[in-house]
Design goal:
With about 150 residues, the protein is of the alpha+beta class. The chain has four helices and five strands. Helix 3 links the parallel strand 4 and strand 5.
């Protein structure tokens, strides 16, 4: 039976492992190791609650992760609080996919944002993950732009 629980500091090794696997699955090639940076990020953000991560656990095995980051931008008329949430780290082990686990984890992080009165949730979807977000009501926008140095 699959159980769902919030991640804590003792789960960071799995968050690091699954984050890297997610990036690899999305086509990222690592020129350098990022384990230390990921470990520091998860330690800090879980400690200060700027990231809440949910896990799916089958027995003793963590089989899927999710996360939602909280941040604030200057207010706008559509978002007077400026509060934003960003869904990240959605990853399910391949042998557990297509069983509704990702959908359940997505709902848990959406509920976290609602409970904290966030009105905007953003994410970047991989090609494989796009349908789960569409089913949950997310709209596809191409307005994201970036400048990289």
């Amino acid at each position: 039976m699959i159980e769902y629980r919030k991640a804590n500091i003792s789960d960071i090794q799995y968050l690091v492992q699954y984050r890297k696997q997610q990036l690899i699955d999305e086509g990222e090639v690592f020129d350098n190791e990022i384990d230390n940076e990921l470990f520091d990020y998860f330690t800090s953000s879980i400690s200060d609650n700027s990231l809440i991560s949910w896990l799916a656990v089958d027995g003793e095995k963590i089989i899927a992760t999710s996360g939602i980051c909280f941040y604030q931008l200057p207010p706008t008329s559509r978002n007077p609080s400026g509060k934003n949430a960003y869904i990240t780290n959605m990853y399910t082990l391949p042998e557990y996919r297509k069983q509704g686990i990702g959908t359940q984890l997505l709902q848990l992080v959406i509920d976290e944002a609602k409970a904290q009165n966030y009105k905007v949730i953003r994410l970047h979807a991989s090609a494989d993950g796009k349908s789960i977000y569409s089913k949950a009501g997310f709209c596809d926008t191409d307005g994201f732009m970036a400048l990289r140095f």
